[in-house]
Known about the structure:
Elements: E1 2-4, E2 8-10, E3 15-16, E4 31-32, E5 40-45, E6 51-56, H1 59-66, E7 70-74, E8 79-84, H2 96-102, E9 110-116, E10 121-123, H3 127-137
Antiparallel strand pairs: 1-6, 2-3, 2-4, 5-6, 5-9, 7-8, 8-9, 9-10
Amino acid sequence: MTITAWIATHSDGTTCTVATTTADCPHNHAYTAPTEAPGVKGLLITTAGELAIAAFAELEDYQRAVGGYIETVSLDDRHDLIANEEGLIQHLPMNLIASAIAKRPLVGDVVIVGFDDASGDFVDVDDSIVDSIRRTFSA
């Protein structure tokens, strides 16, 4: 699992704490995207409320991120949330952000990824959902 930079750096050297794409930047800055890592791009949400973009190349990467066996929770027709299947048994701490997003209690660190219904594969999370979550839950 590779964590990539969360705050984008604008071409003028400033950082954007609001947007992850040029189109979403309220200051109309162009920005330099974080270095891309191989694998599926997902949004890691920790129990401490930290958000990070991470790349997941294989099942073990998801398992490391959530701390054990994985289970998926469907968020909508294009996104799944990946959580620790045994999180309640392991008494993992409540994840308040993930619980609010999924509209059900969730524990432990989680990952949000895209889902391709046709292939059944995880795909990159949409930038729009990342931006929406970031705006809603940023301090």
